[in-house]
Amino acid sequence: MLGGLRWLALEVKSLDRARRFYAGTLDLPVERDGDREVVLRAGETDLILRRPREVPRGGVHTHYAFSIPEDEYDRWWDRLSREHDLEEHRFGSAKSLYLYDPNGNCVELSQREIKGEGITGMFEVVLEVAALDRAEAFYTSLGFETVDRGDDRRRVRLSGPVDLELWEPQLGIADGRGGVHVDLGFDTDDSPGVAVDAVLDRASEVTMIGDDVRITDPDDHVLTFC
Question: For the segment 168-183, what is each residue's pLDDT rounded down to a tens digit?
Answer without folding.
Answer: 999 999 999 999 999 9
